[in-house]
Amino acid sequence: MADMMWAGRFSKQVDETVNAFNSSIAFDGRMYRHDIKGSIAHATMLGECGIISQEDSAKIIEGLKGILGDIESGALELDPSAEDIHMFVEAELTKRLGDVGKRLHTARSRNDQVAVDLRLYLRDEVAEIMALVRELIGVLIDMAGKHTETIMPGYTHLQRAQPVTFAHHLMAYVWMLLRDLERFGDAERRMEMCPLGCGALAGTTYHTDRQRTSDLLGFRAPMANSLDGVSDRDYCVELCCAMSLLMTHLSRFSEEIILWCSWEFKFVELDDAFATGSSIMPQKKNPDVTELIRGKTGRVNGDLVTLLTMMKGLPLAYNKDMQEDKEAIFDAVDNVKLCVKTFTPMLSTMRVLKDNMRNAAARGFINATDCADHLVKKGMPFRDAYKITGTLVAQCIEKGLTLETLPIEDYRAMSELFDEEVYEAISLDTCVRERKSQGGPSPEEVEKQIALAKAELERLS
Ligand code: ARG
Q1: pLDDT over 60 at 2, yes or no
Q2: Annotated catalytic sites, by residue?
Q3: Is residue 195 exposed (0-12), middle (13-18) or buried (19+ Cβ within 10 Å)?
Q4: Residue 426 pLDDT more than 80?
Q5: Measured in angstroms, how far is the CA atom of residue 69 from the centroid of ligand 1?
Q6: Considering only the top CATH level, what class is 111-359?
Q7: Given this model, what pLDDT does residue 1 score?
Q8: What is the distance, to the nearest Å, from the Cα of residue 377 to the centroid of all Cα atoms in its chain?
Q9: Which of 27, 35, 83, 111 to mutate to test the pocket of ligand 1 (most atoms within 8 A of CB)?
Q10: Mutate to test the pocket of ligand 1, among 23, 35, 320, 329 (most ligand atoms within 8 A of CB)
Q11: Residue 397 class from Cβ within 10 Å (0-12 exposed, 13-18 middle, 19+ buried)?
């Protein structure tokens, strides 16, 4: 086993099991690019401030670039027995440059190093997630534009309730996703503060320039308190919260698609490329993608709880518990990206079975409120109209009729206010067309929503 860099104080080598237990390179190795970028900024600042010579600074930067190139080309493999990515890169630099390499860690600790690496890494990931969510929103808005007249039943308690359109339903998800986008942007803004230079916890006696490293790495400003700088993981929690909510939205949507794919609903049909078969039942076409998304939502929520629980009892400043942040946040980020990447093309290739939606809307008395409202518009108080319509629905059920096919005599037997106009008032098309209150399902209102959503998407781009 290689000598640890901190070996000076110790009289023995670390136990093999402890070394394996302690090592994080298996999961933090993925941050090598960000670690090297942070080190290049640090070495640049050390040289400029005269803390190390300009010559050594230049050699270190060249050395780091060489290591990056070699990892990228595959010429250099990460050593799985290294303690973490930070130690690995520094050890490799020293192997290549000798004493010069040993000067890199001046005025720095792994505590501020890991904090800056993780922020840099997650900033890239958030940008990627936001681009994927924007693409998904774009697909949904396009689909909505094609379905402003596609009538379907709206549900409460999973019971047919009132008529809406498929566009209206899709747009509900668009608004959820736009809020997600805003939340990611918000989390991202707080991620743009730079902990580099906070040292182990108490800053440093060297005359460093933290503004300079912050600028070099594209942060907004250095973090104001060195203790906070190394112990803050709010940005992981916030990002994970935003991901949990995004997954909650995808999961609810997935649940609906699962229902819609069933023979009981048959509102949509997934493209063959986005469904799977059964090993025994030849007739099966299963919506596995949506089920997996629903399942992975639990996993991302688990990651969020891992992070919150890990942090809640930690005294300031750094504690090794915090090494557990990475597997949780990486797992969440990886899975969220996979989910959105699969969900978007699955949606855009999904066939919408308009006739089935309309047939479902035509049964289940979803125009009953409209029938009551018709009486109200003729002067009857709503509660009375509600009661009469309820009685009419009960009569229909008994006779195997719908409100559309119930004879006018039956209507008039309940109230003189009824005449032939009632059939027009309760037709599905009227019911949808007339629901033009702001945010309602009427085609013109949904068109307005689409325009608003497009503007919001633009604003959040
Ligand atoms: N691998 C460590 C982590 O991920 C890096 C920081 C180690 N700092 C320390 N004082 N042991 O948290």
Answers
A1: no
A2: 157, 278
A3: buried
A4: yes
A5: 25
A6: mainly alpha
A7: 45
A8: 45
A9: 111
A10: 320
A11: exposed
Pairing of strands 268-269, 351-352: antiparallel
pLDDT in tens, 236-254: 999 999 999 999 999 999 9
Where in the sequence of the chain do the CATH 1.10.275.10 domains occur?
A: 17-106
Residues of the chain with CATH 1.20.200.10: 111-359
CATH superfamily of 368-426: Fumarase/aspartase (C-terminal domain) (1.10.40.30)
At residue 194, φ and ψ (nearest 5 deg) are -100, 120
Distance from the alpha carbon of residue 218 to the mean position of ligand 1, in angstroms: 23
The pLDDT of residue 149 is above 60? yes
SS3 441: coil
Tens of pLDDT, residue by residue over 58-98, are: 999 999 999 999 999 999 999 999 999 999 999 999 999 99
Going 169 to 170 to 175 to 180, the CA torsion angle's sign is positive
59-71 b/e with 16+ CB inside 10 Å = b? bbbebbebbbeeb
What integer pLDDT is reported at residue 3 of this predicted model?
Answer: 66
Atom 2, ligand 1: which residue's CA is nearest? 323
Find out whether 223 and 197 touch, Cβ atoms under 8 Å: no
Half-sphere exposure at residue 386, Cβ-oriented, CA atoms within 13 angstroms: 3
Quote the ligand 1 centre to 320 CA distance (angstroms). Answer: 6
pLDDT for 280:
81
Q: Which amino acid is at 43?
A: A
Spacing, Cα 79 to ligand 1 middle (Å): 17
- Residue 100 CA, chain-centre distance (Å), reads 43
Ligand 1 neighbours (beta carbon < 6 A): 24, 28, 84, 110-111, 114, 318, 320, 322-323
Beta-carbon contacts of residue 199 (< 8 Å; ≥ 6 apart): 107, 108, 109, 111, 112, 226, 230
Specify the domain boundaries for CATH 1.10.40.30 within the chain. Answer: 368-426
- Decide if pLDDT at 378 tops 80: yes
Domain 17-106, what architecture? Orthogonal Bundle (1.10)
For the stretch 258-312, pLDDT in tens is 999 999 999 999 999 988 888 888 888 889 999 999 999 999 999 999 999 999 9
